[in-house]
């Protein structure tokens, strides 16, 4: 059996496969279907300072090789997380990471500070694809200054491992990655969903309630892999790769592109045990290729 341990900055993972935010609830819901302690990390659903209702239905649509969603960060807010969810998740024997979302740098920072006070949460992942209410609703993560403004505010309020999740809906992902690195991010994760739409031709209107949604699943993998390769070759901080992963071979591609760990999202809807299967598959592949450690393959692709 190969050594599967890997690090995201100071954070140590028992294996490089984590769940992606918004696709695995708080983890505890899946305890009957998958041995949670065999997952490298559980990134729980997007958490905001105040409760959010999410968008109206319909908010999901299936597409060829993937899906569109506009769930809109429905959650009961950070206080609910701290009081009701935290006591349940802190018994899980793996890293539980909270995905933090917001609508201004100040509320991201306040939310992060409250999560920072929870001893058993070693890291947060900042979702900077959220709309900036003071800037006409444009996502923070699509400009260097917008992305930097959130990381700057959060870095002052949060001392543990800070992973910044990048939006792929940009012209130059490398410049955004460098901007968040310069503000003190410990790692970047990419990609979040790609903006898309679908039309119901009988009703002659767009399928999702707000018109557009985020595209995810196998169809986004080549775009995600390209971006991970570019960012991993441009920044000095660890890169976490995701977008369309559903097999061990997919995960190995991301590791070879330069990711030190991966996340799996949409594939959880087809098989809630997929993360554990992928981790075991990576292990088998490493053994079959006489690799003693997963770290031997990180970034090897030219
Ligand atoms: C239903 C759904 C909800 C999501 N919610 C969040 C979220 O709350 N925060 C976030 O950063 N990303 C969220 N995402 C994006 C995923 O974490 C992931 O970045 C994206 O789906 C690409 O990975 P995949 O192709 O493996 O699904 C969500 C995705 C889906 C499908």
Protein architecture, described:
- The structure is a single chain.
- This protein is α/β, with parallel strands linked by helices.
- The chain has a single domain (about 5-295), classed as Alpha-Beta Barrel (TIM Barrel), CATH 3.20.20.70.
- About 30% of the residues lie in helices and about 20% in strands.
- The chain contains eight helices and 16 strands.
- An eight-stranded parallel barrel has the order 3-4-7-8-9-10-15-16, surrounded by six helices. Strands 5-6-14-11 form a four-stranded antiparallel β-sheet, with no helix packed on it.
- The longest helix has 15 residues, at about 275-290.
- Bound molecules: flavin mononucleotide.
- Flavin mononucleotide binds next to strand 4.
Q: Would you state the CATH class?
A: Alpha Beta
Could you estimate the helical fraction of the residues in percent? Answer: 25-40%
Gap between N and C termini: 27 Å
> Spatial order of the strands in the main sheet?
3-4-7-8-9-10-15-16
- Count of domains: 1
CATH homology superfamily = Aldolase class I
Sheet/helix structural class: alpha/beta
Number of helices: 8
Q: Major beta sheet, specifics?
A: 8 strands, parallel, barrel
Q: Give me the CATH fold name.
A: TIM Barrel
């Amino acid at each position: 059996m190969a050594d599967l341990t890997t690090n995201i900055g100071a954070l140590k993972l028992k294996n490089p496969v984590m769940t992606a935010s918004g696709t695995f609830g708080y983890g505890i819901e899946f305890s009957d279907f998958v041995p949670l302690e065999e997952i490298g990390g559980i990134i729980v659903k997007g958490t905001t300072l105040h409760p959010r209702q999410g968008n109206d239905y319909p908010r999901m649509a299936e597409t060829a090789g993937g899906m569109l969603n506009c769930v809109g960060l429905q959650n009961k807010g950070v206080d609910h997380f701290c009081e009701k969810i935290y006591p349940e998740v802190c018994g899980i024997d793996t890293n539980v990471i909270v995905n933090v979302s917001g609508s201004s740098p100040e509320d991201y920072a306040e939310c992060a500070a409250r999560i920072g006070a929870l001893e058993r949460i070693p890291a947060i992942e900042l979702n900077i694809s959220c709309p900036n209410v003071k800037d006409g609703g444009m996502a923070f993560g699509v400009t260097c200054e917008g992305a930097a403004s959130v990381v700057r505010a959060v870095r002052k309020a949060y001392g543990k491992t800070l992973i910044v999740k990048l939006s792929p809906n940009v012209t130059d992902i490398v410049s955004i990655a460098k901007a968040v690195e310069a503000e003190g991010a410990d790692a970047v994760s990419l990609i979040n969903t790609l903006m898309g739409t679908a039309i119901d031709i009988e009703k002659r209107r767009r399928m999702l309630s707000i018109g557009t949604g985020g595209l995810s699943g196998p169809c986004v993998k080549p775009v995600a892999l390209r971006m991970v390769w570019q960012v991993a070759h441009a920044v000095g901080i660890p890169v976490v790769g995701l977008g369309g992963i559903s097999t061990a071979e997919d995960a190995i591609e991301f590791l070879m592109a330069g990711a030190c760990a991966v996340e799996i999202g949409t594939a959880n809807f087809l098989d809630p045990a997929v993360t554990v299967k992928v981790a075991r598959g990576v292990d088998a592949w490493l053994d079959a290729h006489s690799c003693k450690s997963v770290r031997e393959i990180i970034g090897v692709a030219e």
